[in-house]
Amino acid sequence: MRKGAPPVPPVTDFPRLWGSSLLGYIVPFLFVLTLVVFFHELGHFWVARRAGVRVLTFSLGFGPELFGFHDRHGTRWRVAAIPLGGYVRFYGDEDAASTPNTEALGQMSEAERRQSFFFQPLAWRAAIVAAGPIANFILAIVIFALVFMTFGRQITAPRVDQVAPASAAERAGFKPGDLVLNIDGTAVESFSDMQRIVGANAGRPLQFRVERDNAEIGLTATPEMREMKDSFGNVHRMGLLGITRSLAPSDVATRRYGPIEAVGLGAQETWFVVTRTFDYLGGLISGRESPDQLGGPIRIAQVSGQVATHGIGALLSLAAVLSVSIGLLNLFPIPLLDGGHLLFYAVEAVRGRPLSPRMQDIGFRIGLAIVLMLMVFATWNDVFHLATM
To answer: Is residue 110 classed exposed, middle or buried when 0-12, 13-18 and 19+ CB atoms within 10 A define those classes?
Structure first.
């Protein structure tokens, strides 16, 4: 045995260790995903009920039902075996994707039509569809606000402790002790604020206002794209200057916020996730970003398990980020997603009549192909990521 190496566990211990590790990923993953999916579908459900639409099924997950019950309105609330999403099925739907059952729709009475999603006015249909993503954004704001009120936020002053040799910061003239005041006119209150701006602007010159020896000076620095490993070994590509933060007691503090301020900060955090997502997509198109950063269910499960080791506050913050991502993804104008339905409704509003069932069917098939390709690509990235860790 190599000196200092941990003892190899007996063969009989491997199932126990593997099961423990797997459980550490699955439980946080199910918590995060179920919370986000539940509120997404609840948005559709709540607005549909306001519109008088009859809801047949509220499902968390797909596939065979594990357990469920009927409420007093006749809706079947169910938990299914495959916990990778969910759906709300309305009266007149043929399947979970809200494909219209044309045969059943044609045989409905006037009273039944009033309960069917497909015979609702255009404004109500659009509101029902948009309610899912909107619920995700609201959930994210509420979670962020609760975290800021309950756990607070650690604020490290944007003060430079060390400057790496031959780094972008050294070339720009940064010195230990510098306190960053703003970047491109945007006030910087913490080192994390500075990291976010720098990380999202690799290759672009940034104008810094810095306090040095009680005087304010200006510096211009261009962050360099670099790969960084976090404490769990995950690789992230981002812009870096080559400086470290000051951890002096006077530069580190934990701050808790009142409800109003916390909600405002929650909205800011939500907007940051939205803008960062679009920045990343723009970088993909221009070639500045790598597609290997896209992850699927396996990556979500892995990150959930890792983040859970930092406590419930960190896991809730991850749920908020995931909620924004799912809400935003569902607004993309891809048939099969909520954004695809909204695209069809926009066309209907312009034409004065809906697209033909055949055109909608073609659109849904294209959307399904796109979604499946994205899932396969993301899963391949997940597997490759795990194999190279």
So the answer is: exposed
20 in helix, strand or coil? helix
Number of H helices, E strands in the chain: 11, 12
Task: Band the pLDDT of 91: cuts 50, 70, 90.
Answer: confident
CA distance 331 to 129: 10
Pairing of strands 243-245, 160-163: antiparallel
At 229, is the secondary structure helix, strand, or coil?
Answer: strand
Give the phi and the psi of residue 217 in degrees, each rounded to 5.
-130, 165
Q: Helix, strand, or coil here: 224?
A: strand
- The residue among 246, 247, 243 whose CA lies nearest residue 165 is 243
From 41, 110, 170, 289, active-site residue: 41
- 147 contact partners, CB below 8 Å, separation of at least 6: 153, 313, 316, 317, 320
Question: Domain 153-255: which topology?
Answer: Pdz3 Domain (2.30.42)
Say how far apart CA 184 and CA 14 lie, in whole Å.
54
**Which of 306-330 are b and which e, b meaning 16 or more Cβ less than 10 Å from the residue's Cβ?**
bbbeeeebbbbbbbbbbbbbbbbbb
With beta carbons less than 8 A apart as the criterion, state whether 39 and 106 touch. no
Domain borders along the chain are 153-255
Encoded amino acid at 46, one letter: W
> For 376-388, what is each residue's pLDDT tens digit?
776 676 566 555 5
Residue 41 a catalytic site member: yes
Contact 63, 82 (CB under 8 A): yes
Q: pLDDT of 170-183, one tens digit each?
A: 999 999 999 999 99
Segments of 171-270 assigned E as strands: 179-183, 186-187, 206-212, 215-221, 224-229, 235-240, 243-245, 252-255
| Cα-based angle 153, 155, 158 (whole degrees, multiple of 5) | 150
Closest CA to 77 of 47, 53, 45, 32: 45
CA–CA separation, 93 and 125 (whole Å):
13
User: What are the phi and psi torsion angles at 179 (to 5°)?
Assistant: -115, 115
Cβ atoms 116, 108 nearer than 8 A: yes
Question: The tokens of 322 are what?
Answer: 């995931």
pTM, to two decimals: 0.79
In this structure, what token pair is assigned to residue 129? 């569809």
**Length of the chain counted residue by residue:** 389
Q: Integer distance in angstroms from the first to the last C-alpha of the chain?
A: 24
